[in-house]
Design a protein that fits this description.
The structure is a single chain. The protein has 236 residues and is α/β, with parallel strands linked by helices. It has a single domain, classed as Glycoside hydrolase/deacetylase (TIM Barrel, Alpha-Beta Barrel), CATH 3.20.20. The protein is 33% helix and 19% strand. Strands 2, 3, 4, 7, 8 and 9 form a six-stranded parallel beta sheet that branches. Helix 5 links the parallel strand 7 and strand 8. Helix 1 runs parallel beside helix 6 and helix 5 packs parallel to helix 6. The protein is globular. The two termini are 31 Å apart. The C terminus is likely disordered.
Length: 236
């Protein structure tokens, strides 16, 4: 099963390694248009990524999930409804984490190791539920804020500014928030291509989480990541 989180709130945000690499992750998919375009960009660039998927439309996306895996990428769980988990009931939490994991594993035919909470929101109760379900909570060190309309160069600035190996980068291949707030002009394929290009200019390979986790010189970089207070749902 691999390592488990041992401190309350302990979550994976990157890897400490001498290997020149960064870890690409995508949330809120699969989306038949966006995910397909991103997969094409990854393939052309020789890059890999971890996709944190929502299971709410899983039966309509089985072939796309298979394509993600067949191309050497990885799938993690992002829950079902994309609600902020500290706000849900115990039974709803069971559904979002344990039931959703079982459903995803049944479709994939393999175990799911990683969980990213929607909005990056977790408290002790939800964090323990993830760990008890046999998954490791994953957050990020770099966020490009690609869920909002911004000048394209601003999406890339966090990549330009970051120098440390092993950072987990949070991106999106879907949009689970209010449709009225969906970015109207963002080309996610181009964004993926530009990010990989910037990382390659730094001599960095782009990996999925699981591939980085087995590098011989690699150790998990974690931090305590807990909400200060429970908050209502919002777009992020």
């Amino acid at each position: 099963m691999g390592k488990v989180a041992t401190r309350d709130g302990e979550s994976l945000v990157g890897f400490t390694t001498e290997s020149s690499c960064a870890i690409l992750t995508y949330d809120d998919g699969p989306d038949h248009n966006e995910t397909t375009r991103i997969l094409s960009a990854l393939s052309e660039k020789g890059a890999k990524a971890t996709f944190f998927v929502l299971v709410r439309d899983l039966t309509c996306s089985i072939s796309l999930l298979r394509e993600i895996l067949d191309e050497g990428n990885e799938i993690g769980l992002h829950g079902d409804t994309h609600r902020r988990l500290p706000s849900v009931t115990a039974r709803e939490l069971e559904h979002e984490i344990r039931d959703s994991r079982h459903l995803l594993e049944d479709v994939l035919g393999e175990s799911v190791r990683w969980f990213r909470p929607p909005y990056g929101s977790q408290n002790i109760r939800t964090w323990r539920s993830v760990c008890d379900a046999g998954m490791f909570p994953v957050l990020w060190e770099i966020e490009c804020r690609d869920w909002e309309d911004r000048p394209f160069s601003e999406y890339l600035q966090p990549i330009r500014d970051h120098r440390e190996n092993g950072a987990i980068i949070a991106l999106h291949d879907g949009f689970a928030g209010d449709p009225r707030k969906r970015p109207k002009i963002l080309n996610r394929r181009r964004l993926t291509e530009e990010i990989i290009g910037l990382l390659q200019d730094k001599g960095m390979d782009t990996l999925a989480i699981g591939a980085a986790d087995i590098l011989p010189d690699c150790s998990r970089r974690t931090r305590i990541w807990l909400d200060r207070v429970d908050s209502p749902d919002e777009v992020s």
